[in-house]
């Protein structure tokens, strides 16, 4: 953008601090998997002197993807914060995973940030911009978050700078040509043996300077005649775009009238438009050569962050007091404390560590703070005072001690044993609750059991710590199937959750088949006779009862009717018959699934004055129900879920076809926003076990869905027979 001034660095273990909120910038990097976010963070860290070189875990220079799981999987799976200094400003870069399974970490980064850099691979084309990236862009636009675009991988075979810029403008900008324009043009070198043209520099369209990055240092070079011709049209378009977004209504008239607008005015208006979120500049980035300090575009990106992105004070957040009053928080170090736990993690040496964004006041080490839950319904579970431990600056695997954190900063604190992700930390004499941010509902079920008796003893604690760390994991003890179920966002999320259980919490679990809560009912009326007569030495067992079973409407449960006359079944044994019937109904009558929605009528029986007993009539009632079931047509009932899918219009057809293939009934469709349609359907739960994964693949990440239980209904006979056979073979 403009000439830079001196930078402040944080290398060699020095802690980067800020004295005022105006000296802090919190920026989240988002983008599709493989777009180069982590590489860019490393390049910016090297450019600022925060680390001497990029990506060396063994010497402590790796500041992102340092977790053991990330190293094994070769991808980001969690949010990481990398602080660095530039132009006397502390920049907290929040590197987020690009894979959709870890969107919870992404949303935590969005919560902590005041602006976003969308890092997109120029080689990805439309696929890199549409789908999840477009949805996230629209979400940021909805809250007015300033955004800029950084294009990477320009020197790959399929990359085309102009085409990718036009694609971004068309998809993300909705075709608004004046609000999304490049600040720089790439300078290409000669073709190599592989036919690729490396990007060796860039043209600054505002200053009209050409910068060469071949040596790993930004060097200004004179513009050639070809470069001047290339920049003229692009520069004029950029100036018109900046002026169009300017608040000065007379500026366009002056420009159209031929007046030369000075550079300082253009830069000032550009920075205001970026901070307001009305203009989204497109920048270029490439990692530095081996051993070099500056990657292509790093200086320009840092200048934009420090001068064009808003300070924490320009991004107000509201909180609610105990009295129920909601008001914006003052981003002032001297104001009452208000902070939020962005994410939690466990460290084998220091215990639970909480990443905290301070919105107001100052957080000191060893402070006693009030912890308030993440929502009105949860306040009772998290409403207590806790004393925090150390305050530190996260930097890769390191924690650099810090005495205090002022409003606007992001730090780690220890010893918050009860605070969970999303909880509010405030002054103990002035409790506050910050409105929670939305998290996706995990919809991929994973049934688990302890691998051994030793694991079983540690399972409960390990699972509770896992859920406390990751709010996108939901734990369920299914009362119908008696299975322990982890609900995750996808298969990669599942693998990371299980790996964390094993490596961090020392709990080994086995994944088992997830069961759906099937039921049985009588489709036709029937009768049965239960005879339990046994004679042996001493008292025998004698009980006979006859019942009629009739189907009832859904939701009726088990209804027991006594129509015994003449005392053929003594009054004291009638409850015993009912108990036996209900016990057998709970066990099922054909496939082992609970029997529901029937009326059982006891009308006849026999007893013995000596040998009849409570246990005998319980057994007779059970046998009578089983005999009645053998003579009737039994239906297997399966749960039906009401499903709502919001999908990009381009994928409505494939999604509708897929729902039909899952025995779904489509109830209707309606547009919900520009380019998006909501599909309402009812789908058997058996068909939805992998739908979270399959829908993402089918719609290329451009769809979301919700599911809620609607009712149970009869399964098709052929499928019911298959279920019974499977139950018999496994039982």
List keywords for this structure.
731 residues; alpha+beta; 8-stranded antiparallel β-sheet; 6-stranded mixed β-sheet; 17 helices; 36 strands; 30% strand
Topology:
Elements: E1 24-30, H1 37-47, H2 68-73, E2 80-86, E3 89-95, H3 103-112, E4 115-121, H4 126-129, H5 132-142, E5 147-152, H6 161-171, E6 184-188, E7 199-204, E8 210-212, E9 219-221, H7 225-244, H8 249-256, H9 263-276, E10 282-284, H10 298-308, E11 318-321, E12 326-328, E13 338-347, E14 351-360, E15 362-364, E16 368-372, E17 383-387, E18 391-395, E19 398-402, E20 404-406, E21 410-414, E22 424-427, E23 432-434, E24 444-450, H11 453-469, E25 474-477, E26 484-488, H12 491-503, E27 509-512, E28 519-522, E29 526-534, E30 541-551, E31 558-562, H13 574-587, E32 598-606, H14 614-630, E33 634-648, H15 652-661, E34 665-673, E35 676-684, H16 691-698, E36 703-714, H17 717-730
Parallel strand pairs: 1-3, 1-4, 4-5, 5-10, 31-32
Antiparallel strand pairs: 2-3, 6-7, 7-8, 8-9, 11-12, 11-23, 13-14, 13-22, 14-21, 15-20, 16-17, 16-22, 18-19, 18-21, 24-26, 24-27, 25-26, 28-33, 29-30, 30-32, 33-35, 33-36, 34-35
Helix pairs in contact: 1-10, 13-14
């Amino acid at each position: 953008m403009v000439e830079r001034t001196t930078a402040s660095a944080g290398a060699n273990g020095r802690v980067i601090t800020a004295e005022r909120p105006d000296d802090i910038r919190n920026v989240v990097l988002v983008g599709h998997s493989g777009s180069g976010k982590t590489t860019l963070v490393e390049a910016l860290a090297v450019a600022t002197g925060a680390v001497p070189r990029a990506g060396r875990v063994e010497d402590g220079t790796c500041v992102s993807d340092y977790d053991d799981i990330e190293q094994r999987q070769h991808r980001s799976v969690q949010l990481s914060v990398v602080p660095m200094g530039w132009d006397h400003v502390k920049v907290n870069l929040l590197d987020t995973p690009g894979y959709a399974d870890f969107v919870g970490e992404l949303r935590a980064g969005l919560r902590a940030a005041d602006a976003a850099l969308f890092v997109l691979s120029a080689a990805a084309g439309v696929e890199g911009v549409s789908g999840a990236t477009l949805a996230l862009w629209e979400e940021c636009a909805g809250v007015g978050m300033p955004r800029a675009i950084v294009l990477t991988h320009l020197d790959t075979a399929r990359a085309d700078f102009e085409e990718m810029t036009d694609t971004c403008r068309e998809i993300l900008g909705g075709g608004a040509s004046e609000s999304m324009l490049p600040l720089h043009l790439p300078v290409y070198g000669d073709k190599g043996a592989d036919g690729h043209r490396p990007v060796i520099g860039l043209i600054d369209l505002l200053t009209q300077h050409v910068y060469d990055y071949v040596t790993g240092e930004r060097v200004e070079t004179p513009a050639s005649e070809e470069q001047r011709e290339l920049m003229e049209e692009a520069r004029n378009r950029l100036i018109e775009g900046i002026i169009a977004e300017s608040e000065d209504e007379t500026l366009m008239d002056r420009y159209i009238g031929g007046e030369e607008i000075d550079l300082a005015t253009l830069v000032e208006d550009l920075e205001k438009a970026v901070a307001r979120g009305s203009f989204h500049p497109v920048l270029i980035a490439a990692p530095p050569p081996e051993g070099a300090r500056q990657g292509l575009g790093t200086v320009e990106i840092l200048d934009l962050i420090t001068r064009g992105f808003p300070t924490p004070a320009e991004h107000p957040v509201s909180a609610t007091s105990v009295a129920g009053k909601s008001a914006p928080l003052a981003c002032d170090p001297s104001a009452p404390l208000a902070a939020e736990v962005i994410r939690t993690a466990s460290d084998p040496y220091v215990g639970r560590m909480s990443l905290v964004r301070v919105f107001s006041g100052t957080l000191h080490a060893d402070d006693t703070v009030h912890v308030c839950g993440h929502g009105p319904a949860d306040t009772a579970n998290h409403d207590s005072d806790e004393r925090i431990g150390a305050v530190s600056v996260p930097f890769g695997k390191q924690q650099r001690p810090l005495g205090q954190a002022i409003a606007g900063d992001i730090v780690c604190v220890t010893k918050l044993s009860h605070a969970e992700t999303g909880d509010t930390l405030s002054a103990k004499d002035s409790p506050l609750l910050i409105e929670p941010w939305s998290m996706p509902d995990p919809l991929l079920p994973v049934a688990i059991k302890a691998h051994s008796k030793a694991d079983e003893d540690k399972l409960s604690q390990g699972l509770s710590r896992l859920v406390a760390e990751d709010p996108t994991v939901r734990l369920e003890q299914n009362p119908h199937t008696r299975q322990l179920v982890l609900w995750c966002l996808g298969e990669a999320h599942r693998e990371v959750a299980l790996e964390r259980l094993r490596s961090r919490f020392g709990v080994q679990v086995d994944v088992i088949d997830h069961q759906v809560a099937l039921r049985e009912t009588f489709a036709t009326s029937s009768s049965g006779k239960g005879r339990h007569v046994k004679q042996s030495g001493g008292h025998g067992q004698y009980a006979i009862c006859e019942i009629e079973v009739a189907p009832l409407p859904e939701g009726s449960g088990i209804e027991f009717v006594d129509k015994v006359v003449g005392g053929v079944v003594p009054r004291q044994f009638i409850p015993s018959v009912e108990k036996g019937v209900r016990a057998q109904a709970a066990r099922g009558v054909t496939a082992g699934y609970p029997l529901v929605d029937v009326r059982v009528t006891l009308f006849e029986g026999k007893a013995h004055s000596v040998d009849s007993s409570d246990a005998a009539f319980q057994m007779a009632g059970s046998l009578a129900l089983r005999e009645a079931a053998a003579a009737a047509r039994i239906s297997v009932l399966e749960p039906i879920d009401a499903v709502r899918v919001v999908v990009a219009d381009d994928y409505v057809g494939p999604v509708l076809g897929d729902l039909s293939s899952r025995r779904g009934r489509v109830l209707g469709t309606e547009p919900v926003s520009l380019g998006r349609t909501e599909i309402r359907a009812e789908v058997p739960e058996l068909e939805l076990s992998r739908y979270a994964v399959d829908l993402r693949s089918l719609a290329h990440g451009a769809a979301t869905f919700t599911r809620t239980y609607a009712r149970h209904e009869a399964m098709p006979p052929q499928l019911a027979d298959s279920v019974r056979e499977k139950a018999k073979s496994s039982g």
